Amino acid sequence: MAKSEVAVAGVGLSKHVSKRRDVNIAELVWEAVSACYENAGLKPKDIDAFITGNMPAFEGVNLPEEWGAGHWGAYGKPLLRITTGGTTGGSVAHGGYYAVASGLYDTVLAIAFEKQSDGNSTAGLNTVAIADAAAQFALGVDPAFLAAFGGGAVGVAVYQASSYMKSSGCTTQHLDKVAALCRNNAALNPYSHLKQPGLTPEEVAKTVLLQHPIRFGHVCPATDGACAMLFTTGEKARRLVDKPAYVLSVASCSDEAAMVGIAGSGTTNVDPCTQESCKIAAARAYELAGIKDPRKEIDLAEPYAPFAHQMLMFYERLLLCDEGEAPAILDSGSMNLDGELPVCPSGGVISTNAIGASAMERVAECAQQIMGRCGERQVKKEVHKAVAHGWGGAVNLNVVAVLSDTPRR
Amino acid sequence: MEYKNETVSIEGGWPMEHWQWKFESLALIRKTLEALREKKLLGLKCPGCGLVYFMPKPYCRCLSIPDEWVEVKDTGTVTTYTFTGAWAYEGIADEGPAGTPLIIVGIVLDGTDTMTVCTLSDAKPEDVSVGMRIRLQWPENPEGKLEDLAYCVPL
Q1: For residue A265, is pLDDT > 60?
Q2: Model confidence over A153-184: pLDDT tens digits?
Q3: What is the mean pLDDT of residues A89-103?
Q4: How confident is the model at residue A146 (pLDDT cuts 50, 70, 90)?
Q5: For position A47, which CATH number holds?
Q6: Residue A92: is its pLDDT beyond 60?
């Protein structure tokens, strides 16, 4: 049980585009950090500790927290780096929560970022698979033979999409709809990357097929961007801002890697769409938050969905409906900004994906929707409780956070 | 200095064939590969929870050591699929293996609890579905290589 009540008192985001050639990593991160200081009304001297993270190997630059710390106001302060692949930002937010909840620190700045244009993300991603794939190369398997089975994030996603679509009845038209919904939301978000106001599902359907069943329009862009969040005690947050967002709980769950067996070492996680670890993490997070019926009590969801089918799949795995129900819920309009349970009001990862920052930006959006700071994309309904999610690792780690407008009783 | 709004690519190599670790799993996989010459499929069963690994694995998710070799069938079920090459990129086919139109399926062989990927031959893209039954297509003379397991056909 948490010793201290934890709240978010500030959120800062950098500009998000595909190539920030005008700034280096530290300068990019500074944009998010300075915005966070400003809207929480704090200065670096007020921060007790820093937690940061990005995806290792994507920039081709390592230990950025060491040479960037000066730009973040972190000199002379405790600094911890957390990286967990796609979930990095979510894990960094969890780190911020743990630091305050434990009673060890009062005020913690959590920073997550990615500057993909500085390096080669595909080469970085290959470093994830290499430990397993190396066993096959040692057997003398032709790399071209393995390449034919499709790799990388899209390779994993297409297998997941095929099995999800079979088990849920989700059609390609649903994928087109998800993309249109998210990109229209993104158009209202000044910090999103791909803004496509007025995009229709029909236009998405006309984009080139990358690999069955996923089209170009169903996939996230590669983004440069950063996000910073200020975690502090409930008491201090109430002094700093009118309406803090309380973090009721965090939970994560790891499962066996589901790399569809190309690693040759055998995975019993045979279906990449089941995502048992997401269901376990969500159930744990709701229990810790004192939520009995998430379907009734959750007002808003920010699932981590770089690929269109994942918005629906993770909506189900976050226990917000029965399995196979999400496509019909999308059709009902419930997931829209003015719907009963808005999903990805930020535009989602499908519109903006600065890898290391993405899972934190889900938590940040939930916090800002609760704080009522979302401007044009502020959802119509009042948000009391929201759920943020991240997905990553070797397709096997899920992180969940539950936020609220009121502290836990 | 002149400011350039472009990304510079630098040629480099990644000699993955030099990753020659002393894998525990390799000794097990070699035994399974050796049996392929006789068209036999050897999986490894966990004494703790009964899961059967194909390919064999030196430790189970329950952290027991799988130690019982069991013969598994060459029939199985499709769990997921995609297409490559000309069927994937709408005609923008690459030269070489990645550009060849293929149906790639994830399969769970009967009597095993693990998924592997395989190429489905003798089928059109519209024929494939999750849950369809398949049989491995053995080469005439298996050489005891992973490539012996590269193809399956609809059952």
Answers
A1: no
A2: 567 788 899 999 999 999 999 999 999 999 99
A3: 97
A4: low
A5: 3.40.47.10
A6: yes
In a domain? residue A46:
yes
Tokens of A154: 């899209």
Q: What's the start-to-end Cα distance of chain B, in Å?
A: 66
The residues, ordered by sequence, that sit 6+ positions from A317 with a Cβ below 8 Å of its Cβ are A275, A278, A279, A282, A398
Q: Do A19 and B57 touch (CB under 8 A)?
A: no
Q: Flag if A148 and B108 touch (Cβ within 8 Å).
A: no
* CA pair distance A318, A275, nearest whole angstrom: 10
Determine the 3-state secondary structure of A114 from DSSP.
Answer: strand
Residues in A closer than 8 angstroms to B116, CB to CB, are: 260-262, 264, 266
User: How many Å apart are CA A180 and CA A160, to the nearest integer?
Assistant: 21
Task: Find all residues with CB under 8 Å of A15, minimum gap 6, and list them.
Answer: A31, A191, A225
Interface test with B, best of A17, A116, A139, A162 (most B CBs within 10 A): A162
Q: Does A388 map to a domain?
A: yes
Does residue A149 lie in a domain region? no
Number of domains in chain A: 1
Taking the CA of residue B128 as centre, how many other CA atoms within 13 Å lie in the half-sphere pointing to its CB?
Answer: 26
Determine the residue of chain B that is closest to A140 in CA distance: B17
The CA-based diameter of chain B, rounded to the nearest angstrom, is 67
A35-51 burial: b if 16+ Cβ within 10 Å, else e: bbbebbebebebbebbb
Range of A385's domain?
Answer: 6-119+220-404
CA nearest to B97, candidates B34, B141, B147: B147
Count the Cβ atoms, other than its own, within 10 Å of residue A144: 10
Whether residue B24 has pLDDT greater than 80:
no
- Report percent pLDDT > 70 for chain A: 91
Q: What is the pLDDT of residues A111-127, one digit of tens each?
A: 999 999 888 877 777 77
Cα–Cα distance measured from residue B106 to residue B115, given in angstroms and rounded to the nearest whole number: 6
Contact between A403 and A385 (Cβ < 8 Å): yes
* Length, in residues, of chain B: 155
Q: What is the mean pLDDT of chain A?
A: 91
Q: How far apart are CA A147 and CA A142, in angstroms?
A: 9
Q: Answer whether B26 sits within 8 Å of A150, measured CB to CB.
A: no
Question: How many C-beta atoms lie closer than 10 Å to residue B6's C-beta?
Answer: 7
Contact A29, A71 (CB under 8 A): yes
Task: Give the strands of the sheet with A6-13, arranged side by side.
Answer: A79-81, A49-53, A107-115, A224-233, A6-13, A245-254, A397-404, A385-392, A300-302
Q: How much is the average pLDDT of A267-296? A: 94
Give me the residue label for tokens 């966070």. A36
Give percent above pLDDT 70 in chain B. 81
Q: Is residue A189 part of a domain?
A: no
For chain B, domain boundaries: 22-154
Of chain A, the percentage scoring pLDDT greater than 90 comes to: 75
Q: B130–A212: do the CB atoms touch at under 8 Å?
A: no
Q: State the Cα–Cα distance between residues A309 and A157, nearest whole angstrom.
A: 9
Structure tokens at A249: 């709980």
